[in-house]
Amino acid sequence: MTDARAVLTALDTVRDPELDEPVTSLGFVSSCTVSEDGVAEVRLRLPTYFCAPNFAFLMVADAYEAVRGVEGVTETRVVLEDHFASDQINAGVAARSGFVSSFDGEAESELDSLRVDFLRKALLAATDQACRPLVAAGRSPEQLVSTTLGELQPARAERLQRKRRELGLPAEDSDALIVDPVTGEGIGVEALPLHLRRARLTGVSLEANSSICRGMLRERYATAGAGEEERR
Asked: Contact at 8 Å (CB) between 121 and 21?
């Protein structure tokens, strides 16, 4: 039998596309159950009733794919609650019909480019987190551009590698710490100051938005999310 813990573990891989944090740790999973015959039902909630429908669709669709891949799950039901576009999103994801078909006449394109934009921002934010302690320790620009992933703490290196894989950037050609989020090419010394400023601004923005979303979710819902208490 599959239990809810296995499904929650799968949901750990589903991230808010804007915040680049798991929906589980954010408290977005309001409940998670698995019946004796393997029917998994996940209910999701968001900080506000009017969260952008494209963000919401990505999370619900990603949650659906993560849960249906869990061994022993025979049927997957992912339900977004308390959102102005819940009916369209839930029906579209269940039918696996895509964003445009789900919002017929309202959406002009699928969400692939939006996902890429968010992944690039997440890579910049991860770069900022990795570079800040190195800069504080006195590493020079010349040393930074020659720093490799192997010199980082494993968790930080893994996060950067994961984002590069998700973006389809060359992973074997370069193990440089600082790369262009579009091409994957290393950043030179002259371009480094601007790149680090962009990374810093992106990282601060994600941190601020994460704090705001958590606060709004606490105000909207008094209860912790499924699996959230165990992670505190």
From this structure: no
CA 2 to chain centroid, in Å, comes to 25
SS3 77: strand
For every one of its 232 residues, what pLDDT tens digit does the chain have, with 9 covering 90 and above? 679 999 999 999 999 999 999 999 999 999 999 999 999 999 999 999 999 999 999 999 999 999 999 999 999 999 999 999 999 999 999 999 999 999 988 888 999 999 999 999 999 999 999 999 999 999 999 999 999 999 999 999 999 999 999 999 976 557 899 999 999 999 999 999 999 999 999 999 999 999 999 999 999 998 989 877 544 4
Spelled out in words, what is the top-level CATH class assigned to the domain 4-109+211-231?
alpha beta
The first and second tokens of residue 84, run together, are 């102005």
Report domain extents, the chain: 4-109+211-231, 112-210
Distance CA 176, CA 23 (A): 30
Distance CA 80, CA 23 (A): 12
Which of 75, 194, 71, 76 is CA-nearest to residue 127? 194
String of b and e for 97-111 (b: at least 16 CB within 10 Å)?
eebeebbeeebeeeb
**Beta-bridge partner residues of 44:** 29, 80
Q: Are 75 and 11 in contact (CB under 8 A)?
A: no
